[in-house]
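User: I'm curious whether this sequence folds into something compact or stays loose and floppy. Could you predict its structure so I can see for myself?
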Amino acid sequence: MLSIIQAAGWPIWPLILCSVLGMALVIERFISLKTAKIAPPKLLDEAIMVSRNGIPGPDVVKQLEQNSVLGHVLASGFRTFNSNPVATEDDLRANLEIAGRQAAAKLQRYLGALATIASAAPLLGLLGTVIGMIEIFGSQGGEGGMGTVPGGGNPAQLAHGISIALYNTAFGLMIAIPALIFWRYFRARVDEYLLAMELAAERFVRHLLSLRK
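Assistant: Here's the prediction. I'll summarize afterward.
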């Protein structure tokens, strides 16, 4: 691997940095987007059960808020009525919508960076390719090169230029393709979570409003 990096020249280092950063982002998103941390399956039913006789106290609300991202959204509904018992349906929905936007921002964190890596890696590989081509032409254009003596030029520099061009192109694609795949996977997963949270919030709103009847 070290010999490949040396053969690829200095343009490979930005690609290595992108690969390390991309791997770190993928691992972080896999850990952060676990179902238990975002939307536990039974959390909504538990929140409805604990509030069937009325809005729970601050301790229960705080525990729910710290449970997960969905818990934070549901807790905002409890907090609305705890702070203002006569809050309207519009107030309740507005507070839940604000909490939902915060949840969406949390779920989508770092996805933009991963998409940037997927887009930038092929361009960085292309940059390495261009630099390699420049070295190739440079090895053939000097004294004793193609323009003077037939068969001249610097074979070592020619081989180095070719290696820079090919290795950087390959590295750029090797980084961009997995980054794009993981970005699309995480985007789909986030969209699925957001839909589930939206449906849960709507059901929770109806439950909270029924407590006031």
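Summary: Confidence is low (pLDDT under 50) at residues 144-150. DSSP finds nine helices and no strands in the chain.
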